[in-house]
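Q: I'm building a small set of examples for a reading group on sequence design. Run inverse folding on the following structure and report the sequence directly after it, with nothing in between.
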């Protein structure tokens, strides 16, 4: 039976409106990324011509070594995921990471779509819904904590050593340190207190309700009940796996710093380790900006700007940062896409194997 426009359910129009808003946001985000990347060299005091020439001169062997370093970082992070979900293999963890990133990197707020894909994959591996919820909370929490703590420590070190003496960069770093401290306090408070978790759930419910009213959707949020329950299961996992996850996320971040430093060294920018760490810290923070996928455009500009402010050359730094982001952002899309195809093929074979064979 087909549905005519006059027979549409009340929820149909809001649903179309919501899809339209998401499509519009995707187009706007893509335009923002392209615009920022096009003007990035000019913002940094150079142009695309010398930057592209530097990138074109990177030998294939160097690219392969950088790819190996990138993969080593991703493999290190699988220890975070396997600790957050006991029973998960490292191969499955790597697939979850790459496929989720592939989806998240192609749309603003694409993390939700990536979580949806990961949910389908984890359910196909016979894990429960509650285990997935705890896994998502713990793994994302440790990712955020790793970025925030690392960035906060590096930026605080910059302030304490007097490396930044004046100007807008100094003001931005001071503001970032204060904001990071407040965010960390809020996260730790939500973990340590049932009351705080319930209060955060109430605030989220009110925010979601306001958004749903804008698109005239009848859906309701119950985070006031969900968050306290999720907090309890999250704390239980953290109590047993915090050491493994902390070591793993530290190893992952250090390998990422090494990848950025290797890109800079390869393109003739031999900067001090502290300076490289500062650029990396800023880049990691900007990946949390949900305006564009993985902070694309903003992260490259901020990272390169920090490195140049601390003594790097405009051409070499711009090329090195784009090369680094080519691995940590762009390459994840096709590699993760292949992972999605492999999983879909596996699921198709499994379904065919379950179909009973009939005989004449």
């Amino acid at each position: 039976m087909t549905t005519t426009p006059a027979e549409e359910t009340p929820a149909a129009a809001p649903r179309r409106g919501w899809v339209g808003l998401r499509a519009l946001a995707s187009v706007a985000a893509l335009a923002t990324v392209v615009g920022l990347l096009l003007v990035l060299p000019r913002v940094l005091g150079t142009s695309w011509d010398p930057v592209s020439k530097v990138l074109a001169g990177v030998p294939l062997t160097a690219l392969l070594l950088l790819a190996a370093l990138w993969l080593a970082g991703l493999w290190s992070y699988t220890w975070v995921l396997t600790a957050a979900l006991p029973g998960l293999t490292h191969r499955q963890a790597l697939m979850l990471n790459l496929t989720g990133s592939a989806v998240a990197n192609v749309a603003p707020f694409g993390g939700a779509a990536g979580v949806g894909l990961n949910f389908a994959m984890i359910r196909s591996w016979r894990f429960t819904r509650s285990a997935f919820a705890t896994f998502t909370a713990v793994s994302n929490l440790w990712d955020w904590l790793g970025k925030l703590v690392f960035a906060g420590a590096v930026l605080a070190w910059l302030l304490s050593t007097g490396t930044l003496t004046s100007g807008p960069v100094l003001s931005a770093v001071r503001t970032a340190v204060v904001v990071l401290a407040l965010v960390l306090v809020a996260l730790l408070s939500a973990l340590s207190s049932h009351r705080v978790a319930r209060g955060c759930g109430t605030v989220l419910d009110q925010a979601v309700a306001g958004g749903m009213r804008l698109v005239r959707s009848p859906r309701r949020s119950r985070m006031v009940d969900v968050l306290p329950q999720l907090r309890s299961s999250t704390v239980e996992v953290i109590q047993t796996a915090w050491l493994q996850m902390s070591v793993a996320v530290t190893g992952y971040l250090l390998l990422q710093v090494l990848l950025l430093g290797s890109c800079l060294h390869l393109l003739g920018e031999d900067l001090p380790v502290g300076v490289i760490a500062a650029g990396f810290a800023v880049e990691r923070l900007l990946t949390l900006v949900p305006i564009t996928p993985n902070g694309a455009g903003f992260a490259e500009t901020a990272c390169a700007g920090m490195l140049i402010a601390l003594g790097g050359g405009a051409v070499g730094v711009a090329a090195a940062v784009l090369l680094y982001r080519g691995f940590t952002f762009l390459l994840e899309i096709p590699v993760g896409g292949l992972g999605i195809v492999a999983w879909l093929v596996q699921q198709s074979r499994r379904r065919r194997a379950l179909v009973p064979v009939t005989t004449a």
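The two ends are 35 Å apart (CA to CA).
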